[in-house]
Design brief:
Shape: rod-shaped
Helix content: 40-55%
Largest sheet: 6 strands, antiparallel
Number of strands: 8
Mean pLDDT: 83
Low-confidence stretches: none
Structural class: alpha+beta
Order of helices and strands: EEHHHEEEEEE
Radius of gyration: 53 Å
Distance between the termini: 47 Å
């Protein structure tokens, strides 16, 4: 076969290796680097290593790798089973393709809907931001007024306390009569007191008004009750005006908080929707149907959970170990990668790779962990 040597026809399959590549012994095990071809009519042909010929094991379904009579020809049965399996796989693939087309159509509609919602959210956020700015200005003005009023009240209270302290000091000085350290001033004070006493005595000696003499009548001054009612009405009016003003100010503050809270919620919703639109959903967006869905499978004592675009975890009872967070697709969207999981003892962070296979049901079929330390 390699063209380096020509041998007679009767040297083929004579159980002696004449060619370096073992091509002269396709039906025997004489050449260690040779190969044996199984026709396997009714099933799939097979090529074996020559060392597997005449080893008393039936590797070919037609039994030609062993001596006559040792192996039964099972190619028809094997072929029928293989064809049935292939037909089942083809039917499954066809159903999977139908689901794929349905998912692609759903994504086309979902993308239009999400894009429309995002535009509306952007407009709502812009409008709500203006309202927040407007009410924040009014709130700032109210807080400034309140600060100035507090400062004015504190200044008035300080002034009142100063006046009261000065009055108390003056009262302490004059209580019990005037006093001085100046001897000459003492005589002057005595003279003033004597003059005041003489004036009061002269006033008391004046005769009463003659009979028939008309005295000027002064209008009656309001009594104590009238003065109290007037003062009370004035105080009530002041309190009512102050209460109305306080309510208006509180309304401004509450309205600002309400708009700010609504803006925060709108911004959060917009960010989440924008993130979803930026995700890789594969060809025609078919994987968008699996967004936020989780799949589990029980393997021995562990429950493995894989959440698309989320996290992969290994659970045992109440304990949960992170196998990594979503990192994206690999190998042309035929595998999922999760990494950055919990640190292994004396090893790297855990990770998980999920191989995808087309089918009619989304499920996590099986999990293997070749090295639990890595």
């Amino acid at each position: 076969m390699d063209g380096l040597l020509t041998i007679p026809r009767d040297h083929l399959n004579d159980n002696y290796c004449d060619c370096y590549d073992g091509s002269d012994e396709p039906g025997t095990s004489a050449c260690s680097n040779g190969s044996f071809y199984c026709r396997n009519r009714g099933h799939l042909p097979l090529r074996l290593n020559a060392s597997m010929v005449d080893d008393l094991l039936c590797d070919c379904c037609d039994g030609t790798d062993e001596r006559d009579g040792l192996c039964r020809n099972t190619c028809l049965e094997a072929g029928a089973a293989a064809r049935a399996e292939l037909q089942q796989w083809a039917a499954t693939a066809a159903q999977g393709e139908q689901l794929r087309e349905a998912y692609a159509k759903a994504w086309a509609q979902r993308e239009v809907q999400w894009t429309s919602e995002l535009k509306q959210l952007e407009a709502d956020v812009a409008q709500k931001s203006k309202l927040v700015s407007y009410w924040q200005g009014k709130k700032t003005a109210v807080e400034t007024e309140e600060r100035l009023e507090r400062e004015g009240a504190e200044a008035a209270r300080a002034a009142h306390e100063a006046v009261a302290a000065a009055a108390a000091a003056a009262s302490n000085l004059t209580e019990g009569g005037s006093w001085t350290h100046d001897p000459e001033a003492v005589g002057e004070i005595a003279e003033e007191q004597e003059a005041e006493a003489a004036a009061q005595e002269a006033e008391s000696e004046q005769p009463d008004a003659a009979v028939g003499e008309v005295e000027e009548v002064q209008p009656a001054k309001p009594g104590v009750w009238g003065s109290f009612r007037a003062a009370l009405a004035k105080a009530m009016g002041f309190l009512k005006a102050a209460g109305t003003q306080a309510q208006q100010r509180q309304h401004i503050k509450d309205t600002f908080v309400e708009h700010q809270r609504a803006l925060t919620e709108l911004t959060s919703t917009m960010a989440a929707l924008s993130r979803k639109l930026g995700l890789d959903f594969g060809p025609s967006g078919v994987f968008s149907e699996l967004l936020d869905r989780c799949f589990t499978v029980q393997v021995e004592k562990y429950t493995y959970e894989v959440c698309m675009y989320g996290e992969a975890r290994q659970k045992e009872g109440a304990a949960s170990t992170s196998l990594g967070s979503w990192r994206g697709f690999e190998d042309g969207h035929s595998a999922l990668l999760f990494d950055g999981g919990q640190q292994c003892w004396n090893g790297p962070q855990r990770s998980m790779r999920v191989s995808l296979q087309c089918g009619v049901e989304e499920k996590l079929a099986n999990v293997s962990e070749p090295n639990r330390r890595h």
